[in-house]
Amino acid sequence: MEMVDVVVVGAGPVGLLTAIELTVHGARVMVLERLAAPSTAMKALSVGALGSEALQRRGMGAALATAEARSLAAIAEFSAQSGTDLAKRASRFSGHFAGLPVRRDPQAEPDRCARMVDQPAVEAMLGERALALGIDLRRGCDVTRVTQQADGVEVEWTSPAGAGHLRCAYLVACDGGRSSIRKMAGFAFPGTTPTLTMYQAIGEIDHPERLLPVGWNRTPGGVFSCGPFPGRLFMLDFSGPPADRDAPVTREEIDVVLRRVSGADVRVRRLESASRWTDHTRLADSYRRGRILLAGDAAHIHPPFGAQGLNLGLVDAANLGWKLAAVLRGDMADALLDSYDDERRPVAEAVLANTRAQVALLRPDPQSGAMRDLFASLMQSDDATRFIAGMMSGLSTHYDLGPGPDELGRLLGDRRIRARTGEFSLHELMADGKWVLLDASGGQEASLLAAAATDGIRCVALEDSPSLLIRSDACVAWVGEAGGIGGLREALRRWFAPVPEAACPEPSRA
């Protein structure tokens, strides 16, 4: 029977990045995808800061820039058509919360922001990167059975080429909100049922000027928005969930819903593409059941506000990949995988909560309108703006890794580390999957200790900066105090194989 280290089920963005992370860290991976070709369905229009940084760390910075340039050109075209300066608006706002614009924080790093790259483009660049790495990606493969055993998982599938069967050490389910793997493996998926229908479409409208102003418009019938690309429509229909979620979205359906929600006398002349979804919100009871793990929408689903789902899933992949590879190499015990659930599930809980809140603020009833007006007033506060912006971008994500030294301890478990430190780009330093030690200790004691523990850390000498040990997923794993290395030995023991005592200098008492 064929054998690989990991089978990843699903070749969407999360599945592909998971496979890339595992491969970069030395694992042998096979990806099984039910669809015969990449999905072109309209989903996220952008990718958040943490998600785009995960892509840049794996060599996709140039592809991101190229794809974003295409998007910005389309936005410029729409701006000219609509008479709205979207570039100027973007310079003032960092996103939205329930359609309420979030003012851009002047103290925020300008290069740590969402990138205007849609989900199909993200999936395309990930596919190219996976191909370059030689990852075994098999399309048209529908997994029909998974059997978990004490020392591995057996996977069976069907495809046009015939049935397949192999054995792997671990399986990662990235097969979406209706994950068959999650169901086969017995994960619970509790949450709330849908109450509304959302639409996203590209088409031609007979009187687009009747749908102005550009942006989110809340009406007695629901919510609608046109742009930021030519022909793009977004609608929230609060009349209830669709009778058949899987039925094709027709021009006639979009035509009727658009008039009801907007209240405008418009007609859809032509429909190029369309998708519908709901505010169905669920979270798996655990991200791990033995040797089967969940990532992306297989683990959590929620209303798609602010492209948080794509960002959330990509960071799931970045968090899980290096940990699973370390276990496969025998560098770390299987228990390391429990930290994936410990760190990522609370982040998903917070996203589910904020998207439910956004649905409540968007409802067309008077009570929700009063709450929305109050919330809009609160968002004029700088503190509220920073809180909302950090929450929506994911930059305020903080893993509980324990207390750190003095006032610098707040950095431990943090993701708000500058992408560029002096002349160094963290993305470039971490391209091969290694951790980075920014060493400001006396005599480079920190680097000596790290080198004695593992060859998986790249050490960079710095001055006038706290020493930081940064994980492969860009999370701070250790913070040094006042030029010393106190606590570094314990951090290395936690995340790497035991440090040889004889090779370790004693911690500085500075």
UniProtKB/TrEMBL annotation:
Its cofactor is FAD. GO terms for molecular function: FAD binding; oxidoreductase activity, acting on paired donors, with incorporation or reduction of molecular oxygen, NAD(P)H as one donor, and incorporation of one atom of oxygen. It holds the Pfam family Rng_hyd_C. SUPFAM superfamilies: FAD/NAD(P)-binding domain. It comes from the Bacteria. Keywords: FAD, Flavoprotein. Residues 4-354 form the FAD-binding domain. This is FAD-dependent oxidoreductase. It comes from Ancylobacter mangrovi.
